[in-house]
């Protein structure tokens, strides 16, 4: 299911054929639409649409173009509307210094009032920002003080520096179909820097039709072309982008509860196995410290799955030939389970990869590389950094200060056992990437892969 988190189906552009537009959206896989208000009248109409159509949710707010029209009575009415069960956000609100249809000082004052409304109603903000980056950040900071704002920077148009500041604030980022324009090279470069966990989809219909329909009216069905573009940018399948962005939208707008934790979960062309949430490291960058999700999959296990449960979960996703032990913890804490499951996978000629922190010997109190022979084709070991000191500082292993050397020993033993070995390091400031490469390739004779620290899976 796809979610168009920002469009304006209340506009008169859709008066003649709104039902058909919604049917085409459904046929393209759009399961939910957030109709975003831009005026008081639009807020009322947005709610009316949400009442009429199951798949439509609404926001209430007034666009900065009309900031001059905002008065106490309007704010009071919006506050009343915000309690409607299908109103899930305040927006679109913010600053527009590009067209500047309302004076800047009025826009700033009104924006602060909408921040107060968002706080009062506990709803996320849908932020409109054009040529007003610094004021937007300052007013958000001022409004939320030491708390992080909940919201999305819609139709993102800033550069990488502004993006970083928005992400530091915890904001979600959404791109419209203008990302598909031939001329959008710069914007595509920015979109690549957004962790997919912070990405939302929107059409902003009737505006900004994709390249293939440029100059025409946009509509939610065209969101598929945006998904295609983002899948190329992030090197993920369209299904991955769909699942992740849907999950993000559900989270931000509290649309519905998350599903149960996954034992087997798909990313690109592989099936990943989540067999434990325990780990013998406590890495400062670990995704588990800030989310239960990886690429849209809930990985927070209520209990560790048995071998049988793992095999059943794999069975249900039979089409995958590449199986990866990975998940939300260190798989070699359950070496016997790995061996049983991998033996069964090998009988079915599957390709098996183990993603590990390399603590397998320390955990099991013996050298385990030989035991993996014939069961695992490839081992990916996270060395993360280039020295023992950095490892101790960043990874905080429960096995103490010699862990870095032990991980390297494990890598050598896997090589000796004839396994294909890949050593991964992170692009965190602490890491000397070239030094890591030398350790991986020259010292250990393994392949080297650099991982982006904010990209998981
Ligand atoms: S090794 Fe992986 S799972 Fe364990 S703490 Fe580090 S990042 Fe998290
Ligand atoms: Zn806007
Ligand atoms: Zn809009």
Key attributes of the depicted protein:
457 residues; alpha/beta; TIM Barrel; 2 domains; eight-stranded parallel sheet; seven-stranded mixed sheet; 17 strands; 38% helix; elongated; binds iron/sulfur cluster; binds zinc ion
Commentary on this structure:
The structure is a single chain. By secondary structure, the protein is α/β, with parallel strands linked by helices. It has 16 helices and 17 strands. It has 2 domains: 2-252, Alpha-Beta Barrel (TIM Barrel); 264-451, Alpha-Beta Barrel (TIM Barrel). The chain has helices at 18-27, 40-52, 72-82, 104-121, 133-144, 160-168, 185-192, 223-234, 238-252, 307-316, 335-347, 360-364, 369-372, 388-395, 403-416, 433-443; strands at 2-7, 30-35, 56-60, 87-96, 125-130, 151-153, 172-175, 199-201, 264-267, 270-273, 293-294, 297-298, 322-325, 351-356, 378-384, 420-426, 447-451. Strands 1-2-3-4-5-6-7-8 form an 8-stranded parallel beta sheet. A 7-stranded mixed beta sheet has the order 9-10-13-14-15-16-17. A two-stranded antiparallel ribbon has the order 11-12. The longest helix is centred in the N-terminal third of the chain and has 18 residues, at 104-121. The chain is elongated. The two termini are 21 Å apart.
- CATH class category label of the largest domain: Alpha Beta
Q: Widest sheet: strand order?
A: 1-2-3-4-5-6-7-8
CATH superfamily of the largest domain: Metal-dependent hydrolases
> What general form does the structure show?
elongated
Bound molecules: iron/sulfur cluster, zinc ion
Number of helices: 16
